[in-house]
Amino acid sequence: MGAGVARYTLVGPSGRMFRSTVPGALGGHRRGRLYGRLDCPSALRVIANGGYVRDRVFFRDQATAVAAGYRPCAVCLPGEYRHWKSQQESPACRARGEKEGTT
After folding, report:
1. For labelling, which of 52, 62, 86, 97 has a CA lying 20 to 30 Å from the CA of 70?
2. Are 10 and 63 within 8 A, CB to CB?
3. CB-CB contact of 55 with 17 (8 Å)
4. How far apart (Å, rounded) are the C-alpha atoms in residues 81 and 50?
5. Reported pTM
6. What whole-number distance in Å separates Cα of residue 22 and Cα of residue 29?
């Protein structure tokens, strides 16, 4: 293939797929709506066992993955995941210092 040929399929901020000349920097799972590093041990283990590939998607960067509605992987992006998780707690639980679903 010549230079400038769009050979990669990525997910854009709108969640729609598009062709790109640049490979994605992050991978994700369409049905699970999560994203992570391309070398994520959890994703690589599932792929090696024959799963995940059909629903695999790729993103240019983290901002694009978040804009498309995906959450960070708890295994390979633990800091980003903790931040995302803290944003998912209800305001009432945060005010009381409780975790979602516990009392």
Report:
1. 97
2. no
3. no
4. 25
5. 0.78
6. 19
DSSP string, 2-64: -TT---EEEE-TTS-EEEESS--SEEEETTTTEEEETT-HHHHHHHHTT-SGGGEEEESSHHH
| 31, 25, 14, 42 alpha-carbon torsion, rounded to 10° | 20
Phi-psi region of 69 (alpha: psi -120 to 50; beta: other; left: phi over 0): left
DSSP strand pairing (56-59 vs 26-29): antiparallel
- What number of other Cβ atoms are within 10 A of residue 93's Cβ? 15
18: tokens are 């598009």
